[in-house]
Specification:
Blueprint lengths: L8 E6 L2 E6 L10 H17 L3 E6 L24 H16 L5 E5 L2 E3 L1 H7 L3 E5 L3 E3 L13 H9 L1 H10 L3 E2 H7 L4 E3 L4 H13 L3 H14 L4 H16 L2 H12 L9
Parallel strand pairs: 2-3, 3-4, 4-6, 5-7, 6-9
Antiparallel strand pairs: 1-2, 7-8
Length: about 260
């Protein structure tokens, strides 16, 4: 049985599907320092347990309202005795989430702002309900961007749009989020689980090693030359050729049946 890293950060693995849930619905899943730190621990659990896909979600009607700035969240990061240490530990968490080797899907309902927006952006795919609301709310709190938003958002929407979102702290509804391009699908609230499940089922049915390498290739491409990218593609493909999954794909094609990939 997997032990949750924090009472408000829940980790579950059901077969090939892992789930990391922020579970503090009475505060719209606002995170304390210790909860952010525990998201790092949750990511390490997923890395060690290796489900084929991991889903990020919030409990109740909201995804995550960011950091708890109410003064009620005195749950700090153990061993971090300076503000910079706190922020570095928080930064480590979003890096670990973003760098999970398996595909990840954010299931977003309701409020998704500030660091909660960063949590959602750290996933590879994002599905939201038609009542979801997004904002880089930092400027309203006299703060600059954090939890990976300065890195993740420009890659999704471009630099100028990211600056607009950061400098104005405007709230975007689900339709605008899809139009801008940081959301993959918008569905009614009652259809969120089914829509996420469609992505999950397709990923689980896919070749785990190949999907993991495709994820890495895409993430690294923005920071490499084309020559470096195609070299990395060649190395990854050479590894794929030696897997039993490639053999299985060929047999399934010839035998006209579904594939049964093992990740070996």
């Amino acid at each position: 049985m997997i032990e949750n890293p924090h009472p408000n950060v829940l980790v579950d693995i059901d077969g090939d599907v892992g789930t990391i849930t922020i579970d503090r619905p009475e505060r719209m899943n606002a995170c304390t320092g210790a909860m952010f730190d525990s998201l790092h621990k949750a990511a390490l659990i997923m890395r060690n347990e290796r489900p084929r896909v991991t889903v990020f979600r919030g409990s109740g009607d909201h995804f995550c309202s960011g950091a708890d700035v109410s003064g009620e969240g005195a749950d700090g990061i153990e061993g971090a005795d300076h503000g910079l240490h706190n922020m570095r530990r928080i930064g480590d968490a979003v890096v670990a989430l973003h760098e999970l080797p398996m595909p990840t899907v954010a299931a977003v309902d309701g409020v998704c702002v500030g660091a909660g927006f960063g949590f959602a952006l750290s996933a590879d795919l994002m599905v939201c309900t038609d009542r979801a609301r997004f904002s880089l709310i930092f400027a309203r709190r006299a703060l600059s961007l954090d939890f990976g938003t300065s890195y993740l958002l420009p890659q999704r929407v471009g630099l100028h749009r990211a600056k607009e979102m950061a400098l104005t702290a405007v709230e975007y509804d689900a339709a605008a989020a899809q139009e801008i391009g940081f959301v993959n699908r918008v569905v009614p609230a009652e259809g969120l689980d089914a829509a996420v499940g469609e992505y999950v089922d397709r990923i689980v049915a896919g070749p785990p090693l190949a999907l993991s390498m495709s994820k890495r290739l895409l993430d690294n491409a923005a920071h490499s030359s084309m020559a470096q990218a195609v070299e990395a593609e060649g190395l990854a493909q050479n590894l794929n050729f030696g897997t039993s999954d490639v053999t299985e794909a060929g047999l399934a094609f010839v035998e006209k049946r579904s594939t049964a990939f093992k990740g070996r």
